[in-house]
Structure formats: structure tokens, C-alpha cells
Amino acid sequence: MTSLKNTQIIHFALCVAVFLFATVTIFINRDEMIFTADFQETAPFNPIFPIVSITTIITSAILYKKMMDKIELNASLDTKIGLYQSAFIVSMALLEGGALLNIVGFLITSNAFFLIFAGLSLFIMIRKKPTKEKLITELNIQYPETEKL
């Protein structure tokens, strides 16, 4: 199994975990579900959980870029892919953490407002799906090495 397939499996597992947890919490809270952005209604979780979610999204993008910038262009393919996987997993873990925190906020308060931020994190996670084309572009891989992917 290739490194790309491993990364895709990790990506799929993280996205499915967030989606299934959100689905289960919606099922649990379906009778008491409310939607309000009123801070008094869901204190102390609102606005802390949404702010944490936005912070993890921004931090995820910054750390991913910093870790990708450290990859040397003349490094071997295995080194490049290893560093890419590290950057990808750190980025995804931050996004997942923000999403899960807001799902827990929804589970505790029954306020669907938190699901907006969990959904935003999940959407970004899905968009980050690793593909061969993204690897070639982001790691600047040239012809003979592209066939090894």
C-alpha cells in the first residue's frame, strides 16, 4: 500500500469520525434541539467553543503552511512524503479537535448553533483530501518520481 493510500485512509477515518459523532448527537438531541446564538442561553460554552473552532481552523492552515515550507525541494521522495504526512495529520487533528469540541457543545446544550462550526471544520477537512495531483503540486515532484506515487 502506498503512502498516498495510507494518508487517504487516515483522512477518510477522521472525516467519518466527525460525521458519525455529529449524527449520533443529533439523534440523541433531536427532541430538545434549539438554535440560538444568545450567549446567556448556552453559557459558558458560547462564545468559547465557536472561537476555539475558528482558532483551530486558522492555526491548522498556518501550521500546515509552515511545515510544508520546511520541505526541501531536493529531498528524496520518501522524505517529502513523510514530512507531508506529518503536516497533513497535524492540520487534520486541529480541525477535528475544533469540530469535536463544538459537537460536544451541542450534545451538552442541545443548541444546534455549535453544529455550524463543527460543519465548517468538517467541510475544510473534506476539502483537504489528499490526492496524487495535490501531492505532485505541493511537493513539486517531477516525472520519474511521480510514477512512484
From TrEMBL:
Membrane-spanning parts: 9-28, 48-65, 77-95, 101-126
Key words, A-Z: Membrane, Transmembrane, Transmembrane helix
Listed name of the protein: Uncharacterized protein
Provenance organism: Pedobacter rhizosphaerae
